[in-house]
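Obj: model holo form, ligand = magnesium ion.
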Amino acid sequence: MRSGIVAIVGRPNVGKSSLLNALVGRKVSIVAPKPQTTRHRIQGVLHRPQGQVVFVDTPGLHRKAARALNRYMNEAAAGALQDIDLALFVVEAGRWTDEDQAVLERLKTATCPVALVVNKVDRLADKAGLLPEIGKLAEMHPYAFVVPLSAKSGDNLEALVKELFARVPEGPPLYPEGQVAGHDLSFTVAEMVREKLMRALAQELPYALTVQTDSLERSGTLLRASATIWVERENQKKIVIGEDGVMLKRVGGAARRELEYLIGGRVFLQLWVKVKENWTDDPQALKRFGYRNS
Ligand SMILES: Nc1nc2c(ncn2[C@@H]2O[C@H](COP(=O)(O)OP(=O)(O)OP(=O)(O)O)[C@@H](O)[C@H]2O)c(=O)[nH]1
Ligand SMILES: [Mg+2]
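Output (holo C-alpha cells):
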C-alpha cells in the first residue's frame, strides 16, 4: 500500500479547491468565482486499490495581506508545505501573473518536491499554444512533473493521479476506508453557507463575513442545524438579510439543498446574522471564529 500527503497551493482563484474536489470525487472544499474563497487548510482523501493520497487544499497565497484574516490565510497556506510528500503548484493555462511568480519563489524554498498543474485547459481557445507554454513553465523550476488538465471537465485528471501514486511512499492508510473529508459536519454546514454567500453577494461583502455553526442535531435522516453569519457592520447585516429577508432565504435555501444532497436526508437550517465590528482584523475574534493556526 502507498500513502502520502500532497498539498495543493497557488494564488487565489486558479482552481485549487475545484481540483481537490475532482480528485476525491466529492465537494469537500467550497468553490466560488471570487478569489480568496478558501480560508482554511482542507483535507480530502483519494482512495484507490493501490493506496491513499491525502490532499491538503489551501487558501490562495496573496500579497496584499493587510488584515489579520489575510495573514492567517497566508500562514495557513505556507504552513501546509511542512511534512508533506509533494506540493502541487496550480496555475491557470495561458495566464502567469506576478502573484504566481511570488508563489513560485516561496516554493523554491520548500524542502518537498514540487509538481506543476496547469489547470483550466478547457478555456484555451487555441490548444496549439499549450505545448510551448508548458515548455516555458517547466524551465522555471525543476518540477517533479508537469500536468495540464481541467478540474472542471476532468480532462487529464487520471494522468495526475498516476503521477501521484508513482511518487507517494509505501505506508499504511492515514484515513479509514470511505472517509473522504478531514473535517466534520459542523464545518461543512458553515462552509456551505459561506459558499452560497460568496456567490450571492457582490463585491467586498463576502470578505467581511464569516459563518459559525451554533448547533447540530441529527435524528434519523433529519439534520437540524443553526448557524450565525457574522459581519462587520450594521449596514452589511441589512444587505445579508435583504429586503423582507429575501437574500437570507435564498442563501439558506441553496445551502440547505446542497447539504440535503450531501447527507442524503432532510435538512432544517436556521440562519442568524450578527455584527462583530472589525472582526477580520481582530486576533481575538479570529480565534473565536475558528481561525487558528498551529
Ligand atoms: N473553466 C474552468 N474553470 C475552472 C476550472 N477549475 C476551476 N474553475 C473555476 O475557477 C473559479 C475558482 O475556483 P476555485 O476552485 O474556487 O479556486 P481556488 O484556487 O480554490 O480559489 P481560492 O480558494 O480563492 O484560492 C471557480 O469559478 C471555478 O469554477 C477549470 O478547470 N476550468
Ligand atoms: Mg479554494
